[in-house]
Write a structure and sequence with these properties.
Order of helices and strands: HEEHEEH
Helix content: 10-25%
Mean pLDDT: 74
Oligomer: single chain
Strand content: 15-25%
Low-confidence stretches: none
Shape: elongated
Number of strands: 4
Radius of gyration: 24 Å
Number of domains: 2
Strand order of the largest sheet: 1-2
């Protein structure tokens, strides 16, 4: 709305099967036509940049047009969300320490009776 979102981050949560339609409606012709059915950690980043084309040179009539325009850049990023990894870091599982020379592991008595402590307490 009149540039009020320029330089800002906008997060949109959507039903994953509809994301390709949304991305294409926003002008992303290079975005995939389907969202992976069993993926819940993929982020589609769309970045709009307003400015002159890079090849424009003032005073050079053979360079591309000097008219300002919007360019769209897109990127697909997997967040690599792994709840088991977070649970281990948060101390939900007992620690296992390798014993150097005996090829045996020692399990400590730490850990918790219930998992998922990271969901509310783990600093991301």
């Amino acid at each position: 709305t009149k540039g009020s979102l320029c330089g800002k981050v906008v997060v949109i949560c959507w039903k994953h099967s509809e994301i390709p339609y949304l991305a294409h409606s926003l002008g992303c012709s290079t975005c995939p036509d389907q969202y992976p059915k069993h993926s819940f950690d993929q982020v589609w980043q769309l970045r709009y940049v307003f400015g002159a084309p890079k090849l424009y040179k003032p005073g050079n009539p053979t360079s591309h047009t000097h008219h300002l325009r919007w360019d769209l850049y897109s990127n697909l990023v997997n967040q690599e969300f792994d709840p088991l990894s977070y649970s281990f870091k948060a101390g939900d599982y007992p620690s296992t320490v390798a014993d150097g020379g005996n090829n045996k592991a020692t399990t400590t008595e730490d850990g918790s009776a219930s998992g998922g402590r990271w969901a509310g307490n783990y600093p991301f």
